[in-house]
Amino acid sequence: MKGPRLYTAEELVFAPEVARSRAILESYVPWCEAQRAERDRMLRFVDDHPDDAHQRTLLVGHLTASALVLDAKGERALLTHHKKLGRWLQLGGHCDGDANLPGVALRECVEESGIDGLAIDPVPIDVDVHVIPARKDEPEHLHLDTRFVVHAPAGAREVLSDESIALRWFWPEELATIATDDSVRRLFERAFRSH
Question: What is the tally of structural domains in the chain?
Answer without folding.
Answer: 1
